[in-house]
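Q: For a teaching handout, I want to show students what a protein-ligand complex looks like in token form. Below are the inputs, and the small molecule is iron/sulfur cluster. Please produce the holo structure.
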Amino acid sequence: MIARQLSSNPIRKSQVAFVFVFVLPTTRCLAHCEFCFYETGHSERVEAVDFVEPLDGALEALLDQGLQQVIISGGEPLLAPTLPDLLALLADKMIHLLLLSHGELLDEQRLEQLEEATVDDITISALDVGQQLRETVHRIMFHSRYTPTLLTCLNRANVGQVPGLLEFSTHRNLPHLFTPVHVPREAACHDKYSLRGLDDGEWEQLVRTLEPWAAASDSAFYLGMMRDFYRDMPVHPGFCPMGTRGLVIDADGSVYPCFHRHDLGAGNLLVDPWEQIQANLEHKGKALIGAPCFGEHCLSMFAGIQQ
Ligand code: SF4
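A: Here is the structure, written as tokens, with iron/sulfur cluster included.
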């Protein structure tokens, strides 16, 4: 989704110009997926603060400069006490609003709230074709105006579910994203979940299964990138949207050019004036042009990118 907007954007790749921002109102989640960045220790959960007021000024400045989309993420954003205020703020902005949720908390009341708050789209987690996914999708499709996008975090434990997941989304005409989980090699659950554990035959089978999806969703480049990466072939995207087109506002108010580059922190909404934060972002984001820090942990950011 992000990539499609970017690919039609005339901004030069050598420029830092923000068109989307991830806003994380909380890093808490109830799902505790073992392979999650927060569970494996790749990322640290932070204490959430209320940054809605300073966010207003930041968004106004970014909107003037071409911001197109706010992606509300987490953790599970529906757990954030500040979510109603955040949505009320965002409802006043002429901007595309996307909410990423695990999905289990999306009851009819929440769906109504999201509609009232003018959230444009929702993406929910789809790890397997279980009863929970069926019920969640049914609720969303028949009790709201949303057509949810499914997000499958591909891992060694659920590759067998891919045909069923594809059948599920195709049958309902639902957009579907597949992104590999990143499990650090030192994590106790690495062998259980990392796609590195698939043998050649399993890879061949997975790619063959995903090819129709990739062709239908302009994801052929991405699927090839994923396959080559895990088959230890040379892969480098040459461009990364993070830090040049996108930024992250973490639950504690900290602002980063990328989820994975906390070493490039640009300031905190509660402490620093936005002008200073943005100057830092633009300066530090230049270090990310050309994606010098690309690795397995970044693959999910490239879903949908065409080259
Ligand atoms: S290449 Fe990876 S670590 Fe570097 S900015 Fe992009 S997503 Fe972040």
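A: Two things your students might notice: The beta strands are 20-23, 69-72, 96-101, 121-125, 149-154, 176-180, 246-249, 254-256, 267-268. DSSP finds eleven helices and nine strands in the chain.
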